## 1
Amino acid sequence: MAVYAIGDLQGCLSPLEALLEQLRFDPASDRIWFVGDLVNRGPDSAACLRYVRDMGDAAITTLGNHDLHLLAVWAGTAKVKRKDTVHQVLEAPDGEELLHWLRHRNLTWRDDALGYFMVHAGVPPVWSLHEAQAHGRELEAVLRSDDYLGFFRNMYGNQPDRWQDDLDGWDRLRYICNAFTRMRYVDADGRLDMRCSSAPGSQPDGLYPWYEMRERLRPAPDPLTIVTGHWSTLGLCQRGGNVAIDTGCLWGGELTALRLDSAEREVISRPCPAFLTPK
């Protein structure tokens, strides 16, 4: 059995099919971990959801910010943006079924035997992986409950930017959501910055990639390697306890797979046609 993590699809189905063929993927025995952002801005958002859903137990998916944006538009609490292609899902005859499937995906996934912990954007320095998994389950429970509409009405916003154990209500869930699905940079105290999305080295003074501050602020190294997507301007990055694999498929980069069950990290990438051009 082979196990791979694959970077952000964002509605790009053809590169996924080509990459799985290159990997000689066998759904009867192999497994794929998707780091989130299955949908939006690419040409085949609905088809990507169907494809991954139909993989059944062969696929594990964590939610990304574009997945949650689609769900918020569906809930009527967010507006469609100019570059969005979420209408492909909203107008699909099986759209409701796909959206209910999507809201039942995980925020985090861990496998101690393989030695990996997957999340879309990252894990803030103030949380252990055990705490991160527990906080992910808090939000998962709400998304899977009858109160999911309430969460989407309160999801957007950049505050609170600092974790406190006594945070409660929507503030607590909004921080959890932002940390797992939007985070790139934090300040020296671990506060989240939701504004800067550029590549490391171009950020304003006082901001640091979350994984760098995690190395500085955590009392001990993480027991598992954290696998993330989300940050296309970062690209493939293997640093210490973090491997980032969003290599900009949507923008004409590559779709990247990381083999998780091999002794050595094996990275396999597939060139992608550009659907959007960075400005």
## 2
Amino acid sequence: MQALLDVILPVFFVVGLGYAVVWRKVFSTVAVDGLMTYTQNFAIPCLLFMALIKIDLGQAYSFRLMGSYYIGAASGFALGFLGARYIFKRSAEDSVAIGFVSLFSNSVMMGLAITERAYGFDALVANFAIVSLHAPFCYFVGITAMELAKSDGDSIAQVAQNVGKSMMKNALFIAILLGLLVNITDVALPKAFLEGTNMVATTALPAALFGMGGVLYQYRPEGDFGAIAWVVGISLLVHPAIVWSLGQLWDLSISELRSAVLTSAMAPGINCYIFASIYNRAKRVAASGVLIATALSVLTIWCWLQVLP
């Protein structure tokens, strides 16, 4: 119970505050959109860039850590897609969008915040390693599957070109590439640049959580409850259970296990709705899945914190 009070509730208080001020029209939806644009395109990329230029790549990128997390994530996508296609009889393109909801955990806004509050900033090394591949991996899987689903006879080369163009427009992906490049080459960056970038980075998590609350207010759950329940169950229970099992099997360190399981236990991120909106597919499932899973994750995150050492 103390973990719920000390770790989880402060994070959800910020989310709830954002929800409440938009609900009471103290903060406009236009302002929320602007705040989310700032966090997604500037603050969070700065946070990832600053983390990746300092991280010990040899220590952070272990096969066991990445394998545990991303096998779980890929399994979530497969289960989401297959359930949507064969249980709920959705089209192939709808099924890809629903699979993406089961794949894309809120690894930055919620995952970093919860892990830091539970175990301290030094525990985030494995989180940053996972996050550095999270957006590239998830968007590569989602975009590739969607382009294949709607290819209508396009060549493999054309599909690959479409995937590449979409990836290179993503600010998170660009920040990750730049951070890794600076880390590998050990380039000395100007102090003023680093300090300025770090100032922007420190605003990322609180601003993103606040904005996330405002975004969630705009998406009311309605219809498609079977598909929504399916993706919520995969996101909050199945994905972290697979990661926990693989982490035990591959003997992850306590710090790696905590980071991998907690990241996988986060609700789907807002990017799930953005992805569904880009392709205009399964938007109601994506929006309602994010909203309901975020609310339920208050309880499920507490349960995972009790399971973890």
## 3
Amino acid sequence: MLLAEAASAAGERLPRAHTLRRSADYLRCYRRGRRLGGPLARLHYAHNDLDHPRLGITASRKVGNAVVRNRLKRRVRETFRRWPGGQTLPPVDVVVHLLPPAKDASFAALRGELIRSLERLARREAGRGEGR
């Protein structure tokens, strides 16, 4: 099922199957995965055995209080869910680690950086898939 189809079927929310739930999955991305970064967020990603990408989000208290961290997490989920290139992502687990400068960034700036990073990820993994 495509990410956009799953989102519309679930009432405009990111389906539970498309989110990372276990700490072991987060640790696998951090320890064995690859990394892309920007000034607002760092993406850690590792391949999964499923047929779709999954998203996880982390933010330390350095990013801000609970209100700020939860607002940023909602913005990241919204960007991931609405990104039209979601169909181009290979089956990977992506952990978005928010950095302290994200608390002062606008939604447009955060969304732009995330989309650029996700596009880089999709291009990088498409190139790796051709050589296999």
